[in-house]
Amino acid sequence: MTPGGVRAILRRLMQTRLPLVLALGLVLALGAAGCSSPCQDLANRVCQCEAEGQVRTNCNTNVKARIRASALGQSEQDYCSGLLGTCPDPNGDVNMCAYMLNTCPGKVACGLAIPEPAPTGPTGPTGPYGCTNLEVAADPAVTPAP
Q1: Residue 32: its pLDDT value, please?
Q2: What per-residue confidence (pLDDT) applies to 134?
Q3: Residue 88's closest CA among 68, 110, 111, 119?
Q4: SS3 for the chain, per residue?
Q5: pLDDT-derived band at 1, boundaries 50, 70, 90
Q6: Are 87 and 99 in contact (CB under 8 A)?
Q7: HSE of 4 in the Cβ direction (CA atoms, 13 Å)?
Q8: 114 and 142 Cβ atoms separated by less than 8 Å
Q9: How far, in Å, CA of 2 to CA of 114, rounded?
Q10: Alpha carbon 24 to chain centroid distance?
Q11: Do the beta carbons of residue 52 and residue 97 sit within 8 Å?
Q12: Over the stretch 57-96, which tens digit does the pLDDT of each residue have?
């Protein structure tokens, strides 16, 4: 077979299969986009800090069930999208999990707490300030203002 013949065959294959490949790619992309939401992605980051195995699986299962049951609106999804920009993705890093779950800045960055106002003195804010943990499991009505 000549090199020109190989190019002709390849060109023919590309012309007949290209729409099929593009359609398959589009279906996969749309399917993947529909499997998750910003709030689920955020919660999954927190679940990554759970022990591997059944505990982490239960965390992810509970996240999916709560998100499905709560029917989050666009403002909540936008709030979660903003937190995805500040909440680190731990990827199993124990130090990152400790930051996210045990420090006030980490909790605030991931939406697990809201910052308390800094105390003010005669020259402005003084000293360190804390945060208030959000106990969503205890009171699902507690949500931070977007």
Answers
A1: 41
A2: 75
A3: 110
A4: CCHHHHHHHHHHHHHHHHHHHHHHHHHHHHHHHHCCCHHHHHHHHHHCCCCCCHHHHHHHHHHHHHHHHHCCCHHHHHHHHHHHCCCCCCCCCHHHHHHHHHCHHHHHHCCCEEECCCCEECCEECCCCCEEECCCCCCCCCCCCC
A5: low
A6: no
A7: 0
A8: no
A9: 70
A10: 26
A11: no
A12: 999 999 999 988 988 899 999 999 999 999 999 987 899 9
The Cα 134–Cα 65 span in angstroms is 19
Amino acid (one-letter) located at 133? N
Which tokens sit at 87?
Answer: 């909440």
Average pLDDT over every residue of 137-146: 42
From residue 106, give the alpha-carbon distance in Å to each of 78, 87, 94, 102, 120.
19, 7, 13, 7, 23
Residue entry with tokens 């360190």: 128
- 99 compared with 135, residue with greater pLDDT: 99
Q: How far apart are the first and last CA of the chain?
A: 66
